[in-house]
Amino acid sequence: MATSLLSLDRVNAFYGESHVLHDISLDLQEGRLLALLGRNGAGKTTCISTIIGFLPPRSGRITLAGGSLEKLSPERICRAGIGLVPQGRRIFGSLSVRENLDVAARPPAAGGKRHWTRDDVWGIFPRLKERQNQLAGSLSGGEQQMLAIGRGLMTNPRVLLLDEPSEGLAPQIVRELGEVLMTLKEHLSMVLVEQNLGLALKVTDDVVLLNTGRVVFSGTREQFEGQQAALHSHLGVE
Q1: Model-level pTM?
Q2: What is the pLDDT of residues 117-142, one digit of tens each?
Q3: Tell me, what CATH number does 185's domain have?
């Protein structure tokens, strides 16, 4: 039976005095992908920011394999085994593709299933190998997203957080991204924030749906699909 790897238990977060996450609870099981869905402004990216330590929670617990994360810095959270592919890619445009990967390289987190190397990234993204000496800022949008994912893998996480990875990509590249995520599921547990509902439901095992910083649904993909019509008002997705 799958065990809980990443857990949020009644997490509350604030921007100043503005209460943005309200008692958020979710569980990512070992070896599964959880899609975090909802309209723009529902709190999805804020939830990712809280997990990775950019926005420390005011209350509640965040644990990775039972160890508390909520009081750690983003760097220590990364070392503990949480990797991030941020919204907007945020690659280092003035560095080469190879340098972007090398600067992110970290030893595997305790309990990690796999040690990711540059050669592993080349194997998943052959185009990056072809362009390894090219400045990252000159890559296409799809190639930059590949690099952002590869850079996340080089941190050797147990859990990879992906924030809107299909944003701004052509349909063919989105299909390729779906295939990559299916491959990565064999090696990683992941949390996926995604506005493209078709992509999310193709790759996910579990769904958490947010609205105004609150969980309005939590369950398996099959359970979500069974209730999708009733949940439509909470979805701002394609």
Answers
A1: 0.89
A2: 999 999 999 989 999 999 998 988 88
A3: 3.40.50.300
